[in-house]
Amino acid sequence: MELNRDTINKIRGLILFTVITVIIGINYIKVLGLLAAAVNMAAPFILGAAIAFVLNVPMRRIESSLSCVLKKDSRLLRPVSMALSILLVAGVLFLVMFVVAPQLVRTLLGLQSSIPVFFGEVRQWLEKLFAENPQILTNMEQIQIDWQQLFNDSLKFLKNGAGSMLDTTFSAAISIVNGMSTFLIGFIFSIYILLQKENLIRQIKKLLAAFLPERTVEGIVRIAALTSRTFSNFFTGQCMEAVILGSMFFIVLVVLRLPYALLIGVLIAFTALIPVFGAFIGWAVGAFLMLIISPMDALLFSVVFFTLQQIEGNMIYPHVVGNSVGLPSIWVLVAVTLGGSMMGVVGMLIFIPLCSVLYTLLRDTVNERLKRRKLSVKPDDLKRDSAEN
C-alpha cells in the first residue's frame, strides 16, 4: 500500500474510530446516562419539532389554498396559514371536549341513580346464591382472620404511607409544572420552526454540504424527504381511519338503540389514533357504563365491538393507513406489534411510518441491485449456459 496523504488520513480515521468505539464500549453505562440527560434537556425542542410537524400537515394545504387569494410573496401568507392551522387543531380538540364533556357529565349524574340499583341487584344475587348454596357460608366461617394483626399492619401502612403520599403529591405538582413549561417552550419553538422552515432547511443543507461528500448529502436529503412524506401521509391516514371507525360505532349503536352512542363513538374515534389497539380503551369505558345499566347491553356492545374491530383491523386499517404510507398490510401489523412491545403507545405511532421508510429504501436498493445484476450478465453468457444445460 502506498502511503500517500489520503491513505494516512484513512488510517488516522480508522484508528480514531476504533479508539472511540472501545471507549464507548467500556463506559457504555455512563454514555447511556449522558444520552438520557441530553434527551431530557432537549425535550422541549423535540416536543416543539413534533408539534411543528403536526401543524405543518394542514398548514401546507391552507397555505396553498390561500395563495390564490394572497400573493405568494405576501408577508401575511405564512402567519395567517399558521394561525388558521393552530385554530383548526385546537378547534378539533375543543369540539371533542365539547361533545364528550356534557355527555360525560350527564352519564355521571345518571350513574348516581344507577349504581345503587346495580349494587342492590348484586346483593340480591349474592343472597340467592348463599341461600341455594349454604356450604359457601360454612366455608367462609372456617376462615380464621387475626383482626389485631390486620389492624396493626393497616396502622403501620398508614404511618409509612403518609410521608409517601406527601412526597408523591409534591412530585406530581413538580411534574405538572415541568410538563406545562416544557409544552409552552415547545409550542413557542414550533412557531419559530413554522415561520422559518425554509431557512432552517437551507441552513441544514449548507451544513451537510460543508462537511460531507455531495453524494452523501443527496442521499440524506432524499431519505429526509421520504421520511417527511411518509410520516405526513401516516398522520393523515390515521386521522381518517379514526373518523371512519368512530362513525361506524356511532351508526351501529344508534341502529341497535344502545345507550351512550355519541359518547362511545367520539371516545373510540379519539382513542383510535393509537394504531390498532387504541379502540379497546373506548370498549372498556363503554362496556363498564352499559354494564351498570344492563348486562345484556354490555354483552351486545362487546359483540358489536369485536365484530367491527375485526372488520376495521383486517380490511379498513391496513388499506387506509397501509396505502397512505406505502406499507403492505402484513407489515403494518408487524410494525404495530414490534413498536408496542418495544416502546408502548409511542412505538405504535412511530414504527409504522418508520418501517415504511425502511421498506421503501430496502425495496429500491434490492431493485437497483437486481437491475445491475441483470445488466452485468451478457446475452452470449446466457446462450452458452443454455447450450451447456
Describe how the helices and strands are arranged.
Elements lengths: L4 H22 L1 H14 L1 H24 L10 H56 L1 H8 L5 H49 L1 H15 L2 H42 L5 H11 L7 H15 L1 H31 L3 H48 L2 H10 L1
**Number of helical elements:** 13
Distance between the termini: 44 Å
Number of strands: 0
What share of the residues does DSSP label as strand, in percent?
under 5%
* Broad shape: extended
Radius of gyration: 30 Å
Please summarize the sheet with the most strands. none
The overall pLDDT, averaged over residues, is: 76
Q: Output the helix-strand order.
A: HHHHHHHHHHHHH
Helix content: over 70%
Quaternary organisation of the protein chains = single chain
Unreliable stretches (pLDDT < 50, length at least 5) are none
Class per helix and strand makeup? mainly alpha
What would your notes on this structure say?
The protein has helices at 5-26, 28-41, 43-66, 77-132, 134-141, 147-195, 197-211, 214-255, 261-271, 279-293, 295-325, 329-376, 379-388. By secondary structure, it is an all-alpha fold. Helix 8 runs antiparallel to helix 12, helix 10 (279-293) runs antiparallel to helix 11 (295-325) and helix 11 (295-325) runs parallel beside helix 12. The radius of gyration is 30 Å and the shape is extended. 18% of the residues are buried.
